[in-house]
Amino acid sequence: MLAGLFAFTSAYGQSNEFKSEFLSRINQTRAKGCNCGDTYFPPAPALTWNDNLFDAATGHAKDMAKRNYFSHTSKDGRSMQNRIVAAGFAFKGYKSFAIGENIAQGQQSIAEVMDGWFKSEGHCRNLMNPDFKEVGVAEYKTYWVQDFGGRTSFSVQQQKLIKSGKYKVVEN
Fold first, then answer.
1. Does residue 49 sit in helix, strand or coil?
2. Which of 144, 115, 110, 108 lies closest to 17 in space, CA to CA?
3. For residue 108, what are the CA distances in angstroms to 69, 79, 80, 146?
4. 146: closest CA among 166, 169, 123?
5. In sequence order, which residues have a C-beta less than 8 Å from that of residue 106 and are 6 or more positions away?
6. CB hemisphere CA count around 125 (13 angstroms)
7. For each of the chain's 172 residues, which pLDDT tens digit applies?
8. Which candidate, 134, 137, 135, places its Cα nearest to that of 110?
9. According to DSSP H, which parts of 92-154 are helical?
10. What does pTM read for this prediction?
11. Which helix (H) or strand (E) is 166 found in, with range?
12. Are 136 and 83 in contact (CB under 8 A)?
C-alpha cells in the first residue's frame, strides 16, 4: 500500500488504491473498536465501498470547492439526504435506512484526514456506527467528503407478508 499520498486533484476516477486505503484505515479501526471522545465503541462490521455514495461525496466536494464554502448543507439548500438519494442510494423498499456524512478541508493525505476524523468525537461516531454498512469517499482540491449508508432488507418472511397484503410498509 502507498504511504497515503496520491496525486489526485479531481475526485473523478480516483484509483483503486484510494478506495483500498480508505477502506483499510476505516475497517482496521472498526475491527478492533475505539473510543470516540469518552465513549467506547465496540468492534463493528467492515464497511464496503458504494459507488452511489462516492458519487454523492464527489458532487459535494466539487461543489464546496467551486463555490468556496464548507458545510453539510449545499449552497442551493440541498441536505446530505437530498444529495445521497439523488445519487441513487435509495431507501424505498428497505426495512431500515441510515445515512451520515463527514467533511473536512485542507488535509493533504488520506492518513491526515482519517486521523482527524477519528480524533473528532462526532466524526468518529459516524466511522464506528454499526448501522452504517457502506461508504463512499471523495477528495477534490483538499475538500474531503465521506458519505455513509446502511440499509437493511426485509426478511424473506416479511417480503411474503408484504406481497400478500398482510403487512403494510408505511414511509415517513
1. strand
2. 110
3. 18, 26, 24, 15
4. 123
5. 142
6. 7
7. 333 333 343 444 568 899 999 999 999 999 999 999 999 999 999 999 999 999 999 999 999 999 999 999 999 999 999 999 999 998 888 888 999 999 999 999 999 999 999 999 999 999 999 999 999 999 999 999 999 999 988 888 888 888 888 777 776 5
8. 137
9. 110-119, 121-128
10. 0.86
11. none
12. no
Number of other CB atoms surrounding residue 40 within 10 Å? 10
φ and ψ of 40, to 5 deg: -85, 130
CB-neighbour burial class of residue 30 (10 A; exposed 0-12, middle 13-18, buried 19+)? buried
C-alpha cell of residue 134 = 457502506
**Residue in this structure with the C-alpha cell 504511504, named with its chain if needed:** 3
CB 51, CB 138: distance < 8 Å: no
CB 124 within 8 A of CB 36: yes
- CA angle, residues 63, 93, 87, in degrees to nearest 5: 15
d(CA 70, CA 130): 27
- How far apart are alpha carbons 82 and 61 in whole angstroms? 15
